[in-house]
Structure formats: C-alpha cells, structure tokens
Design goal:
single chain; alpha/beta; 19% strand; 488 residues; Rossmann fold; six-stranded mixed beta sheet; GMP Synthetase, Chain A, domain 3; 3 domains
Length: 488
C-alpha cells in the first residue's frame, strides 16, 4: 500500500488547487465559493522520485448551504486518521487566523505527522510572511505557490521523509494497485449513487443526504470485495441542461462526463419508484455512443415491490424506454439494505471480460456473408453497395471495420442491422459494438468518397454530450419571448 498524504486546512486556502497540481489533472473542482469540496478525493501521485496517495478534504470551519458540516467533518476526521502524513495548508497572504490556530490545536497531538505548508507565496516579496506560521507550534513550515507551481519539490521531499514505500523503487505492501476494474456510478440526482457506493464499501465513504446535489466531485473509491477488485467513481447527479445554473453544477457535470469516458464499466443507477426521465435517457444514450458496457441498476426496488411491481413487467417497461441499451443487463438493488449489490459487481466483471474478447477474421466474415445474404444494403448510388470483407481491429469496445466500395452509400440503419446480427451470434451479447466502414483502396476504385472511414451514424449519435457547450455565461432572457409580427 502506498503511503497516504492528506491535505487539510480552512476553506479557500488552495487545497483543491494543490491537489490538482500534484496530480497533474483538474480532478477537484476549484472555485472561489467556500466549501466546494465535501467528499474525500484520492489519487495516486508520482513525482520528484516519490510516489504516494494524495487525499483532498473539505475545509475545516465551512458553513455549508445544506447544513452538511458534520458530514464533511466526519470525512476529514477519517482522512486525518488514515493518513501517514498531514499537510496543514495555510494562506500566506492572509497570515495566521483564529481558525488556523484552532486547527493547529486539533492537530498538535499528532504533530509528528504534520507538515505546515504556507500557500499563495506567489512572488519573492511574500516569503517573509512564512515565518509567522512558526508560532503555530507544529515545526518549520514550507512555502509554496500551488498556482505558480513553486516550492512543490521541497514540500514533497519533506512530506515523504521517513515514509516507507514513498521513494520510487522501494517495495510497497502487497495490496494490488493494478488490474482494478474502473466502475462509474452515473445517474440523475437522488437516485442513490452515493448510498450504493457506501454499501459496496461497507462504510460511510461518501456523504449521503436527502438533498439534491450533495456530491459535486467525481470521487474515486478503491474497494476489494469477494467479486473482485474495483475502483468506484461516485459522480454528481445530473439535471437537464436548462436547469444547470451555477458554475459548480456545470463543473460537476463535466466531471461526470469525463468519469464515464474513462470508466471500464458504467452502473447507470435508476430510481425504481420514479419514471425514467429525459436525463436518464440522455445518460444511457451517451454510454451507448461512447461504447461503454453498462449495467442498469434499479435502486430502491423495495419501494416498487410495495407498489405491486414485478421484475418481469418492469424489465419490459424499461426496455421500451431505453431501446439503445436493450442488450444491457439489469439488476435490482436496495442500497439501504445492501440487497443484491454483489450481483451488480458480478455483472460489471462479466461485461469487462466480454468487452475484451476477440473473434477471428474467418469467423467474422462467415457471419458477414450470412448477414448480407439475409439483407443486402439498400441501393443508394448508381451501383449496388458492396461489402467485401471485415476484421476486428480493437477491443474496449469491440470495434470492427468493414471494407466497402463507397462509404457514403452505407446507411445508419444498415449499420445497426449488422450490429444486432453480430451481437446475437458472437460473444458480445451485453456490450456495445462499434462498426466502421472503410473504402477499399484499389486502382479500379472511383475514389469519390468524402471520408475514408465512417461510422454510418446519425448526427445525434455522433455528437452526444451530457453538458452544455461553451455558452454557460450567456445572459438569461427576462420577460416573455418576443413575438414575430405578421407580414402585411
């Protein structure tokens, strides 16, 4: 197990900025609003000859709009208790505050694990401000600027001093860090994603509250279970584009989209006691277009059963509303009781294995010949569309290229026909398939194709997205919409 280093401090001292700087990616949301970070964010870091696990926490002393201070503090306490080293981050521009002294008193019993870090020393003129933090009584501080990326090497070296396994090349504990299946829990607000994450972990790993928008960041949670080893990504609940108003909500939606893209398997969590809404359908469509193996997790099934619902009827009803994922397996769970949560992980493991399968070119072309004999491509150009042969070129998702005489004569409907035909006869019954068409290079070919390789998909399928384009700063129109006058 890699050593763990936790970043703690009062709100708005730059904890998330330092976390992102060490990781090298904008994982944590950074915003001037105090109390943005609520859950613990973990990520593995390797830099300057050291490797460790960095943990971002919420601000100590926040006043949360939804009164979740106690939940945030509980997450901070767990991060402090599990950390091998604690980075007590302060603000060099504001100096030592009353809250800094309170935090220092709280950390004093564990001062052998604490390193005081003074942030926002963005130029040489602020270096002298660092010495006042010696009065906190937690040792000699180190000065950095997370924004300017200065002083980080010294900070990392001092933070990793004496930590076993922190230096690159040293042996670490036998906990498996590779080979984990990356599972993203996605869905709209208040369907129970965080509750499921905690049920998988067997502890309160992320904050759960009966409030929409509790989760903001995409939180990575590694777990070891009898079903296998996984990394869960608990994401923020999504709303319709027209309802996204705050910057924080937009950033959270961006991270949800990115989490789905980097996941091996997506658990699309639906509320059994509610209708399948437009946001549910949009997430399902996005998973299909991105080629992500998806498990439909019907949470709160106990409430639906009390209302007289049966699994057979619900499955038929759900397939009708999510036709793009009609091949995706369905599991029925209850996060509060932990019922059937292991089945969701078993299905995720099966999909991950299926998504990595390959078939031989001969087997594929035999099926391709049968498919063409059963239904030929519709004649679009002056001559018939010809499919010469095909081959599988990639996995995750299984990707096939079919060589044709003209790519712009292949219709989206025929692409879907081939996809369904192959899925029924190949070991890809539960995962999306990606089919590409390529013009065969030949001296007898007209060479009139607009594109050499196409997906034969509609415009909506090619441009699926979960978040707004770059228009979020567009001013809202007030009053009734303008009316058009009639022509005289």
């Amino acid at each position: 197990m890699l050593p763990s280093i936790a970043i703690v401090g009062r709100p708005n001292v730059g904890k998330s900025s330092l976390f992102n700087r060490l990781v090298g990616e904008p994982i944590a949301i950074v915003d001037p609003t105090p109390g943005v970070t609520r859950d613990r964010l973990l990520h593995e870091v390797e830099r300057d000859g050291f490797r460790f696990e960095i943990v971002d926490t919420g601000g100590i002393g926040i006043v949360d709009d939804h009164r979740l201070e106690s939940d945030v503090y509980r997450q901070i306490d767990r991060a402090i208790g599990a950390a091998d080293r604690i980075l007590f981050l302060t603000d060099g521009r504001e100096g030592v505050t009353h809250l800094d002294r309170e935090i220092a008193n709280r950390l004093r019993p564990m001062q052998d694990r604490v390193l005081v870090v003074v942030n926002k020393l963005d130029h040489d003129g602020l270096d002298h401000e660092m010495h006042q933090f010696v009065n906190l009584g937690l040792g000699e501080p180190v000065g950095i600027s997370a924004a300017q990326a200065t002083g980080l090497s010294t900070m990392v070296e001092r933070a990793c001093e004496g930590l076993k396994g922190a230096r690159v090349g040293e042996e670490v504990s036998p906990r498996v860090t590779d080979g984990r299946i990356l599972i993203c829990l996605a869905g709209r607000r208040n369907v129970g994603k965080s509750s499921l994450t905690n049920a998988f972990c067997g502890e309160e790993r992320v904050i759960v509250a009966n409030l929409p928008g509790t989760t903001r960041d995409a939180v990575d949670v590694p777990i070891d279970r009898p079903e296998g080893i996984f990394t869960l990504i608990d994401t923020a609940g999504l709303r319709k584009k027209a309802q996204i108003e705050e910057d924080l909500e937009f950033y959270a939606a961006c991270r949800t989209e990115r989490a789905i893209k980097r996941a091996d398997v997506v658990l699309l969590v639906l509320d059994a006691s509610d209708e399948v809404g437009a946001v549910d359908k949009k997430i399902a469509h996005f998973c299909e277009v991105e080629g992500k193996p998806t498990v439909l997790v019907i949470n709160k099934w106990d409430l639906a059963e009390k209302g007289g619902a049966t699994r057979t009827e619900y499955t038929t009803w759900l397939r009708d509303r999510l036709p793009g994922l009609k091949f995706a397996p369905i599991t029925y769970t209850c996060a509060l009781t932990g019922a059937h949560i292991g089945e969701a992980l078993k299905l995720a493991t099966e999909l991950h294995h299926e998504n990595q399968q390959r078939v031989t070119t001969s087997q594929l072309n035999e099926l391709l010949e049968q498919a063409v004999q059963r239904r030929r491509p519709r004649k679009v150009g002056p001559v018939h569309t010809k499919i010469y042969y095909g081959t599988q070129v990639d996995t995750t998702p299984p990707t096939f290229i079919f060589f044709v005489n003209r790519t712009d004569w292949i219709e989206p409907g025929y692409s879907r026909y081939l996809e369904n035909f192959l899925r029924e006869r190949l070991p890809f019954t539960k995962v999306p398939l990606r089919i590409l068409f390529k013009a065969r290079e030949s001296v007898f070919h007209e060479g009139l194709d607009q594109h050499q390789v196409v997906k034969a998909r509609t415009k909506a399928e090619r441009r699926a997205t979960l978040v707004l384009p770059a228009k979020t700063n567009r001013p809202k129109r007030r009053g009734p919409p303008p009316t058009r006058g009639r022509r005289k």
